Automatic annotation (TrEMBL):
PROSITE patterns: PAZ, PIWI. Residues 277-386 form the PAZ domain. Its main location: cytoplasm. Residues 550-847 form the Piwi domain. This is Protein aubergine. It comes from Drosophila mauritiana. GO terms for cellular component: P granule; perinuclear region of cytoplasm.
Length: 861
């Protein structure tokens, strides 16, 4: 449905006043969006200061006094989205002298880090720069300040904050240390006022902000283009013409203090650039739909777009079909149409005068800063970014992309060395680094590592020692599952016209289950005449009325709306474990039927796990251990809503039951209270089964952005510990709860290699590239066939379980073997993946809390 007309925009074609386009809309828009406003290398080089001056981003950890936009991530992804980290969060226990383990085979690995050979020894003075009258764009601010380069000397300027070696004398009677005057292109006098803010010593944590700014300035000399927060090389672009895509290779870099040295982390990355514009999407909507307006809005709402003329990204919030490029808006020089504005400002000719305008609403931060007007963008000039669901489902396109983006270790190491050589051979980069006394090592950092002992996978009639493949799928051909739940009462709901194909697949499942010593009786078939949502709902009601153990539902093709309808019915209205399969998977064409046995095996394993069976287990040395996973998933339909899911084990040495729950959270709501209540429920469930509380609790927290780390450490953990201690002391345990709380991070940039190969599963790194303020380690727990394996970061926030580093690392590795949706190891502990699976199901499909009657089953697999 179209929204009401926007006030202040003419409804006629070419009359009245429209809202401002992106460049004119708000002061400081580029910093607020975390983007550079550079539109060309010529303008950038003119505007950046000499001797390492210029720069686009403030990066790395910092103190609160300095707030600089365009933040870049640390080696473990210190910026997610566009949030800044303003404090180091110290989580390493006081008195800990070593966090290194000793168990395992000792090896040496290389990592994607370069050591800074010379530690900077300087004092940097920080100033705030204000312009009167106000200058809106960072690019123009830099150009105006560049005119005073001789006076300023070497400097770095991000549009608001100035860093330089010179300490200027204060002007008597004025808070400003320098007041300069320059002229704009129009001949207007502009005052530049520079005010002292503070200084950065080489021993301060703030030095890493400056070091990262200097590095980004050095990277500009490589003729790279800044897109979002990272630099990419458009000259080396890879064209995928069949899919309207380009791949731009680039680099993510970050400098920070690690255990003993200052290291530069460099990760190879790629930017997916779609060659189609919003105008192409509009043309397709007009061609293929009667109601093209609704179709176009559905296609672009929420999309992030890129405008090449100013290198900015925006999120589309609405489409105004009443406005066109002929509409006018107000500027300091009077009214001007969008057509004339873009011709005058960028020498861009807009071709279609009748196209609508898309709108990007101001963020909460924009509004707090007084910028409450939306930004109007021309579809013809906006390029779509990211990938649609249809693109993600296109396996041909993904395969074509993976050939270029999933680099094996040897190629990745080669590209890292090429990057280092470019920095050392480019004259501008060399001059920048030399002027700040920075020298990089040419060799990748070498790190001591260990390979943990392999785990034993226990089946019903066999023990399998997990090898470097980290996969035991083939073992199910001659092994029974560890604990089977026989299925005697179950229903299969299928379209009547596909009954034969469904029966053949069900018979295959029964046959395979018998080989795994699991008995599955013949089901009752509920045939439905059509595949409407209401028909499926009625069939589920009919089946649930007979109290089945599980219901299998067959749908013809993947359909999110139909899947959501089925899951709402089986998880909320008529709670019963369900298994949804698509006809395309269970009844493929003859030439694609080779993997059908594997599909049936996985379905049998899933159904057994959903009914509290155990396909396999591993040896857990501790008795009375509860492992907990927590993750958060944001609702795609309401950006102010998210769902936090908690999944807990009930002592995996003796039990195969789980406890799960999920809660809705609104934007800005504190998670700690709900987490404590959910943990109390999990403990109650544990006590009902074992008649005692768990001896130890190992809590894995996923879904933590680095901007949330301070809140998690200082509020969430403390609230949880206080609540658990109270429960334990009430139960007569005076010492309270023995809890270890670990933050698990997958989105990291660290990589390490064994020679020119991937490290084997179980490879742990707990020195050199870890952080001195943390009790942390990296773990590679899976094997990959294509590309470079990604380690997972484990940050131990709180620990009073009494286990040393070796035992925590080994327990974390063990837990990656217990995810029953995949017969192999995964990147994170299984409880984390279960929590993610549950949160994702509720956020995407159910949108409400599931029935409590299912909380002890893995119904969400």
């Amino acid at each position: 449905m179209d929204l009401p007309p926007n006030p202040g925009i003419s409804r006629g074609r070419g009359r009245g006043r429209g809202r401002k386009p992106d460049e004119e809309a708000n002061r400081g828009l580029a910093p607020l969006l975390g983007q550079s406003s550079n539109s060309s290398h010529t303008e950038r080089n003119q505007a950046s200061g000499g001797n390492g001056g210029g720069g686009d981003a403030q990066v790395g950890p910092s103190m609160r006094e300095v707030q600089i936009p365009n933040s870049e991530g640390d080696p473990r992804g210190s910026v997610r989205g566009r949030r800044l980290i303003t404090d180091l969060v110290y989580s390493r226990p006081q008195g800990m002298t070593s966090k290194k383990g000793v168990v395992g085979t000792h090896i040496t690995v290389q990592a994607n880090y370069f050591k800074l050979l010379t530690r900077p020894n300087w004092t940097i003075y920080q100033y705030r720069v204000d312009f009167t009258p106000d200058v809106e764009t960072t690019r123009l601010r830099r150009a105006l300040l560049y005119e005073h380069k001789r006076l300023l000397g070497g400097y770095i300027f991000d549009g608001t904050n100035l860093f330089c070696n010179n300490q200027f004398k204060a002007v008597q009677g004025s808070p400003y240390v320098l007041e300069l005057v320059t002229k704009s292109r129009a001949g207007e006098n502009i005052e530049i006022k520079i005010k002292a803010v503070g200084s950065v010593e080489s021993t301060d944590d703030q030095q890493f902000k400056v070091l990262n700014l200097i590095m980004r300035r050095a990277m500009e000399g490589l003729d790279l283009k800044l897109v979002s927060r990272n630099y990419f090389d458009p000259k080396a672009q890879i064209n995928l013409e069949n899919f309207r895509l380009q791949l731009w290779p680039g680099y993510q870099t970050s400098i920070r203090q690690h255990e003993n040295d200052i290291l530069l982390c460099t990760e190879i990355c790629h930017k997916v650039m779609r060659t189609e514009t919003l105008y192409n999407i509009l043309s397709d909507a007009i061609r293929d739909n009667d109601d093209y307006q609704s179709a176009f809005k559905r296609a672009v709402m929420g999309m992030v777009i890129l405008t090449d003329y100013n290198n900015k990204t925006y999120r589309i919030d609405d489409v105004d079909f009443e406005s066109t490029p002929l509409c006018k808006f107000q500027t300091n020089d009077g009214e001007i149409s969008y057509v004339d504005y873009y011709k005058k400002r960028y020498n861009i000719t807009i071709r279609d005068f009748q196209q609508p305008l898309v709108m990007s609403r101001p963020t909460d931060r924009n509004i707090r800063g007084g910028n409450d007007q939306p930004i109007m963008i021309i579809p013809e000039l906006a390029r779509a970014t990211g990938m649609t669901d249809a693109m993600r489902a296109d396996f041909r396109m993904l395969r074509a992309m993976n050939e270029h983006t999933r680099s094996p270790p040897d190629r990745r190491i080669e590209r890292l060395r090429m990057f280092n050589n470019r920095l050392k051979s480019c004259a501008q980069s060399v001059e920048t680094l030399k002027s700040w006394n920075i020298e990089l090592d040419t060799a990748l950092v070498e790190i001591p590592a260990r390979v943990l002992p392999p785990e034993k996978i226990v089946f019903g009639n066999k023990i399998f020692v997990c090898d470097n493949r980290a996969d035991w799928t083939q073992e199910f051909r001659n092994c029974s599952m560890f604990r089977n739940v026989h299925i005697n009462r179950w229903y299969v709901i299928t379209p009547a016209r596909n009954l034969r194909e469904t029966q053949e697949f069900v018979q295959m499942c029964i046959s395979i289950a018998s080989k795994m010593k699991m008995n599955i009786a013949k089901p009752i078939y509920e045939e439905i005449p059509d595949d409407r949502n209401g028909t499926y709902s009625q069939a589920i009601d009919n089946a649930a009325a007979n109290d089945p153990q599980i219901v299998m539902v067959v749908i013809r093709t993947p359909n999110e709306e139909k899947y959501s309808c089925i899951k709402k019915r089986t998880c909320v209205d008529r709670p019963v474990p369900s298994q949804v399969v698509t006809l395309k998977v269970i009844a493929p064409r003859q030439q694609k039927s080779a993997g059908l046995t594997s599909v049936a095996t996985k379905v049998v394993i899933q159904m057994n796990a959903k009914l509290m069976g155990a396909p396999w287990k591993i040896e857990i040395p501790l008795r009375g251990l509860m492992t907990v996973g927590f993750d958060v998933c944001h609702s795609p339909k309401n950006k102010n809503k998210s769902y936090g899911a908690l999944v807990a084990t009930m002592d995996q040495k003796e039990s195969f039951r789980y406890f799960s729950t999920v809660n809705e959270h609104t934007k800005g709501q504190e998670l700690s209270e709900q987490m404590s209540l959910n943990m109390a429920c999990a403990l109650r469930s544990y006590k009902e089964q074992h008649r005692s509380l768990p001896e130890r609790i190992l809590f894995f927290r996923d879904g933590v952005g680095d901007g949330q780390l301070y809140q998690v450490v200082n509020t969430e953990v403390n609230t949880l510990k206080s609540s658990l201690d109270e429960i334990y002391k009430t139960a007569g345990k005076k010492e309270g709860c023995r809890l270890t709380f670990i933050i698990v991070s997958k989105r990291i940039n660290s990589r390490y290699f064994t020679g020119h190969r991937n490290p084997v599963p179980g490879t742990v790194v707990d020195d050199v590239i870890t952080l001195p303020e943390r009790y942390d380690f990296f773990l590679v727990s899976q094997a990959v066939r294509i590309g470079t394996v990604s380690p997972t970061s484990y940050n131990v926030i709180s620990d009073n379980m009494g286990l040393d580093a070796d035992k925590l690392q080994m327990l974390s590795y063990k837990m990656t073997h217990l995810y029953y949706n995949y017969s192999g190891t995964i990147r994170v502990p299984a409880v984390c993946q279960y929590a993610h699976k549950l949160a994702f199901l509720v956020a995407e499909s159910i949108n409400r809390a599931p029935s409590a009657g299912l909380q002890n089953q893995l119904y969400f697999l």
